[in-house]
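Translate sequence into C-alpha cells.
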Amino acid sequence: MSSGDLKLAKELEGALMVSKLPIPEPFSGGLLLSYKCTNECKHCMYACSSKWKNDWISEKDAEGILNQLSSKFQGKYPSKSDTIGINYGVHFTGGEPFLNFDLLLKVTRMAHELQIPSTFVETNSFWCVDDETTREKLVQLKDAGLHGILVSVNPFILEQTPFERTERAIEISEETFDRNVIVYQPFFHHQFKRLSIRNTLPFEEYLQKIDLSGLHENIELLPMGRAPYKLGYLYLKYPAKAFFGQSCRKELTRPWHVHIDNYGNYIAGYCGGISLGDARDLDSICSGVDLEERPILDALVTDLERLYEFGVKEFGYEERKEGYVSKCHLCADVRRHIAQRTSELKELRPREFYYHFE
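Result follows.
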C-alpha cells in the first residue's frame, strides 16, 4: 500500500468512528443544592460564595435526579446500606446546604423514600450557633432518613466559621449519627485543637503558627477551582507546555463521586464548570457524550495542548507569565477566558462559575 493509500485509509477510518465519549453509570455522587454559600473559601473547587445568585435546585428536578440515581445504584450496594463514605451513595452539598434547611429536609426524605444508600450532608457548620439549634436540626435530618454527615475542617473555613461551631457540629453529630460522621480533614481538626484555636483566624496568621514544610504532605489540597488563584503562592509554577501531552479523559469518565448541580449539570472528576450534559436525562449522558458538539471536551479527552491552542487561536488566550500550578489550573484558566467571551459552548456551564475565581 502506498503512503497515499495509507493516508486515505486512515481518513476513512476516522470518518467512520463515532465521535462520542463513553460515560459509565455513576456509582456515587453529590447533589449540589446551590452554589450559594456563607463562605468564600480560598480552596473551593466550585468557586462557591455568597455572591452567587440565590438559585436552588427545584424539588421537581431533585426528585427526578434522585429517582434516576436510585435506579443506577441498584445492585451496586448491600441491601439497605447506611454506612457512609466519601465515595459511596449520595451526599447533599453546595455551596452550603443548611442555608436552605427546608429544602435539605425535603431532598433527604426523597432519598429515604427511594431507599438510596449511604446518604449524608456536607457542611461548613456556620449554623451551629448553640447546642439546642444544632441538635434539633441534626435530629430532624436523622428522622427524615439521613444516614450521616461530613463536617468540613480546614484553615479556609476557619477564616469565616468560628472553630467553636465546628467543634459543636462534630460533637453533636457524633451523638446523633454515631459512627457515621466524617471529619474532613482530621489533620486540621487535631491541629486546631492543639493550637487552642478559638473563633476565626485569617489564613495569613494561620501560616505564621505552623510549619509549612509538612503542609502538603499531611493534607489533601487539590490545585483546581479557586485554589490556584488564591493559593498559588504555595506552589511551584510551570509553563503551559509542561502539561502538554496530558489528557483529562480519566477524570471526566470516572463513575464515582460525580456531582449534579442545581441547574442539572452533570459534573465529573471535581471538574467545576464542565458539564457533560443535562442530568435530568442520565440515560442520554450514559449513552455517550457527543464530542463533535463540544470542542472543549474533545480537546480535554485527547491532549491539553489542543485546549490551549483552541483558546489561543479562536479566542486570543495569552499564557500566564507566572505559569500554572497544575494541569487543572491551565485548563480552568483557558476555559475561564473562553467562557467570559462566549455563551455558545454548552459544556462550559454554569457560566457564572467562571466569574468567581478571584
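Note: Strands lie at 20-21, 29-32, 90-93, 120-123, 148-152, 181-184, 258-260, 266-267, 289-290.
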